[in-house]
Every structure is written in structure tokens, then in C-alpha cells.
Amino acid sequence: QSQQSQQISETSLTANDIKIHYTIHGTALLSEKPYQCAGCSKLFQNARKDHQRDSLRYCNYTGKYFCSSCHFNDFRILPSTVIQKWDFSPLKVCVLVRDYLDQMYTKPCIDIRSIPKKVIESHKNLTQLLIYRKQIVLQREFLFTCKEENLNHLMSIVGTDLFLLTAESHIFTMESLVSTQKGTFLNVLKQIVKKYTQHITIDCQVCLGKGSFCEAMRGDKCIAKNSTIPLFPFQFDLTETCLKCSALYHKKCFNPLLCSQCSRRA
């Protein structure tokens, strides 16, 4: 099948075809041959010249060209550039994509597991975001088993960001990622972690009673001064968790090569 026949026989895109993806498309090269709008199938006789006249427009999200009736030169932040590069520069998209991204902006649908490690390491706000998010995920295990009469208040602390308590730790909204890049969302998360920590470790006897004691105490090897105070896995500044058995230690008491609980289970 010739290139020309491929260009003018593509099935038109519909709203059902637009999904969240993390692929960055390169701009397709256009030749002086017929080309079909990916939205309404309008035929252009000379793709290169029509693109130069701005009557054939490129959508950075789909990697396809659209006519001016299906593409209004709207700019949107793309999930793909955020996830692959932590780049929030708005790019031109077609009407279908514009409406879809607007609809999905506040929904928890962005999976950040594909963010390259080097990108995380080079952006402090992203690194801090992952720390706060992990803390809240660990905290919610205590909150959801707290007294039922406390649950409504505890959930209200996250405001409209309920996904923090319901979604997996790698799922975010695009709105939250944009706010992270601006710096505002980190302040919100910091306050949430602080309030939940206050509830679990001080205010609520039910949650406090679910804490653990340093595993090193079993062999009288705990060297922390406040060894009788319960520990919690979300206290990253105070504790270390054995990756094999999940035993909890004070930082100064932990030796990853000599976990006493792992030794007992061996």
C-alpha cells in the first residue's frame, strides 16, 4: 500500500479514542501529497502547503494533523511531557484532546511510575512530593481503622484531594502535579502529614495503640533514649523499616544486615 493511500484512508478519531498516554510524539514530516484531517476526514490536496497556511494543524498529543475546524490552536499541558521530562510547557492540541484533558484535569488518573529516576533526582519538588505521598499512604492505614466517629473529620483534612486517601501511591491528578511544580501543593501535603501525625501519635489513643516498638528492644540492643515511645512507619526522620520483614527500628538502631526479626524467622 502506498504512502499516499495510507495518508487518506485513516479512520477518523473520536472522543472514545482519546486516552491518557505518556508517549511524546515527534512532528510528522509532511509531503506535497493529499492528507486527511484525523478528526473529520477533510481531504487536503497538498499537506505541506496547507500546514504552512495554518489550515492543517499538528496535535502534539495524538501525533496527527487536523483541519482548522477540529484544531483551534489551543495549548494544554501534556501528561506525556510531565511524566517523561517534568516539563509543564503547554503545547498545541486538537479540540478532542483539549476537551479530554480539561475533563481529566482533576481526576486521579496520572501514573507517575514511568518518571525516569534521573528526572526525580534532578527536581527537589518532585522528590518531596513522593515522600509526602508515601507518608500519607502509610498514615491512612491507621486512619481507616480509627474510631468511626473520627473518620469524617480525618477525611475532611485532605479537602477535595480525596485521591490521597483512596488511590494508590503512584496515582495523581494533573492538577496536583501542576500545583507541585508551582510549589503550592507541597505546602498542602506538608500540613496534611502534620495533622495526621498529630492525630495518630498524640491525640488518638486508638491510633497510638497501633504503634510499634523498636525491634532492637527484643535483644536489649535499643540505644534510643525514648525507647518506650511507640514508633510509626511514616516517621521517616525517626525510623527505618526492614525491607524484608517490615520490622520497625529507630534509625540509630537499624542494621540492614542484622535484622533480629529476620534472624528469628530464618
Attribute tags:
266 residues, alpha+beta, two-stranded antiparallel ribbon, elongated, disordered N terminus
Quick structural summary:
This protein has 266 residues and is α+β, with helices and mostly antiparallel strands. The chain is built from twelve helices and ten strands. The protein is 39% helix and 11% strand.
Fold and architecture overview:
- The protein contains twelve helices and ten strands.
- Helix 6 runs parallel beside helix 10 (184-203).
- The strands form five sheets. It has a two-stranded antiparallel ribbon. It has a two-stranded antiparallel ribbon with strand order 3-4. The chain has a two-stranded antiparallel sheet with strand order 5-6.
- It has helices at 3-7, 47-52, 79-85, 95-104, 117-121, 124-143, 148-156, 163-166, 174-182, 184-203, 205-208, 260-265; strands at 35-36, 43-44, 56-59, 64-67, 74-76, 91-93, 110-111, 171-172, 239-241, 248-250.
- The protein is of the alpha+beta class and 266 residues long.
- Basic shape: elongated
Low-confidence stretches: 1-9
Counting copies of identical and different chains, the oligomeric state is: single chain
How are the strands of the largest sheet arranged?
Answer: 1-2
What's the SSE pattern? Answer: HEEHEEEHEHEHHHHEHHHEEH
Count the DSSP helices. 12
Alpha carbon gyration radius: 26 Å
Task: Give the overall pLDDT as a whole number.
Answer: 89
Helix content: 25-40%
N/C terminus separation? 64 Å
Let me know the number of strands.
10
Name the beta content range.
Answer: 5-15%
Largest sheet: 2 strands, antiparallel
* Helix-and-strand structural type: alpha+beta
